[in-house]
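Deliverable D2.4 — example input (structure tokens):
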């Protein structure tokens, strides 16, 4: 028997003819997430971004045990996020770009949140039974953010980290050359407004969010240096009418936070606030109509389950919603990575 035939036989013994690899790989994938989250929280990639380091130096800078350092480096090298050069260990190009704090568009804030196990199997089991957000022990997440500035800041940092790169994709793909005033409903850190304003010098954007988030948004806007174009306004998108005087309304990752019925109310309010010819833009990670993926977006249904009252949208669900609320010329635009915009105009 050849080596490879022998290996095949051992992979699929006659007693267990169905390959277990796909199941095992799905199970072990959680380790990948745990490893990058721990490395991000500990600042490993920030350290490696400063240049290659030999093992001893890396271990001492991190303050880890020798066995721990070896285990972590082995795992990260297997994933390709750490590489070995003649000068020592270094971060791969994508790890340096997306797992370090200082890098624009970095996903560190999102990955860092994994340390708090918001989506552990136990949390998921609880959310499945309860059918309500369970992340903060059952408290409404937005009320928790309103009451606790530290929670609002951590969540807004994570959202900024999720949104900065797709915002750049949206700014590239969406023609806003005729738009003058954009209302960024539930605009969070302002990642979207900042990107759209920088790409469209004639555009004024207003981030409309709950009072505890607006000062945080102001900080992001100030550090992006676009305070002359982007401002924040405290409000409540459910309790108040949308402010008037805007020709464009953006809802980025808002509809997926609430039920389809609540989503319809938010879109209807946008329709009422816009002038004829005004535009609505919905920015989301959409799921294809035949549920063929992308897997990454379909898995976000589970994040929505533990964090919110919502779910990810299929392309047709969003298109139908906009048309039912009165918008015409509704079309989907793929922007960057897993992201899309669906836009429509008020006749
Ligand atoms: C998932 S985040 C999206 C943030 C941003 N649009 C983005 O894509 O990065 C949802 C945002 O809605 C805001 N929000 C929640 N309830 C709100 C309300 N009643 N009125 C206005 N904003 C609200 C939250 O504070 C948060 O910033």
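Example output (designed residues):
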């Amino acid at each position: 028997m050849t080596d490879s035939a022998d290996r095949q036989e051992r992979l699929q013994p006659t007693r267990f003819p169905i390959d277990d690899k796909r199941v095992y790989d799905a199970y072990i994938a959680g380790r990948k997430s745990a490893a990058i989250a721990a490395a991000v929280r500990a600042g490993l990639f920030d350290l490696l971004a400063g240049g290659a380091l030999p093992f001893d130096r890396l271990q001492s800078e991190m303050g880890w045990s020798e066995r721990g350092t070896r285990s972590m480096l082995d795992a990260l090298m297997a994933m390709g996020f750490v590489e070995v050069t003649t000068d020592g260990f270094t971060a791969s190009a994508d790890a340096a770009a997306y797992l370090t704090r200082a890098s624009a568009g970095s996903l560190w804030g999102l990955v860092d949140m994994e340390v708090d196990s918001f989506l552990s199997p136990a949390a998921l089991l609880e959310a499945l039974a309860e059918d309500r957000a369970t992340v903060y022990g059952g408290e409404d997440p937005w009320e928790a953010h309103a009451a606790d500035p530290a929670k609002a800041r951590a969540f807004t940092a994570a959202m900024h980290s999720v949104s900065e790169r797709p915002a750049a994709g949206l700014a590239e793909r969406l023609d806003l050359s005729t738009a003058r005033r954009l209302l960024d409903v539930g605009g969070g850190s302002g990642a979207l407004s900042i990107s759209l304003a920088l790409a469209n010098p004639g555009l004024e954007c207003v981030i409309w969010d709950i009072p505890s988030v607006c000062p945080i948004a102001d900080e992001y806007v100030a550090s992006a240096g676009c305070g002359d174009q982007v401002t924040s306004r405290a409000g409540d998108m459910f309790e108040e009418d949308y402010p008037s005087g805007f020709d464009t309304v953006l809802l980025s990752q808002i509809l997926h936070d609430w039920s389809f019925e609540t989503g319809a109310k938010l879109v209807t309010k946008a329709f009422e606030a816009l002038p004829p010819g005004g535009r609505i833009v919905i920015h989301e990670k959409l799921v294809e109509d035949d549920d063929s993926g992308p897997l990454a977006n379909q898995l976000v249904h589970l994040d929505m389950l533990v964090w919110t009252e919502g779910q990810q949208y299929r392309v047709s669900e969003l298109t139908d919603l906009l048309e039912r609320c009165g918008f015409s010329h509704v079309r989907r635009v793929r922007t960057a990575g897993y992201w899309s915009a669906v836009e429509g105009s008020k006749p």
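The two ends are 72 Å apart (CA to CA).
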